[in-house]
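Entry 14. Ran structure prediction on the chain below.
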Amino acid sequence: MKTSPTINHARVLLVEDHKNLALAVGTYLESSGFNMDYAYDGLSGLHLATTQRYEAIILDVMLPGIDGFEICGRLRTDLHLSTPILMLTARDQLQDKLNGFKQGADDYLLKPFDMLELEARIIALIRRERGELDGSVYSIHDLSLNNRTM
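Output, structure tokens:
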């Protein structure tokens, strides 16, 4: 089993209506040490994102119920949620990408994608959110001190 020591056990929400794809992505990320939760429609995804704490959210755009753009916008505007959001979608037009970023997405990855790239992007988003890239987190063995949360 491969693991990333700084990301091990990070909790990630995957909102994807294609169950086979969701299970493939989730299984891969779980083998990398992530703890995954799943939602297969927009309403369930919005509910989980608002009632649970995640270190990252992977969000499809074309979802039954509420689309990913609306979910992202609600999480940012209504709830002021800062959790990193990666849009994972087949919507490849520039206007779609711009809309995703306008709604508050931190990253936008097109389907089809490589699992290694998805994992690398999620790790980068989580490390940035944790403050591991700006020197505000100091770690010695299993102990970490985050100056931003003191």
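The mean pLDDT is 89. Will compare against last week's run tomorrow.
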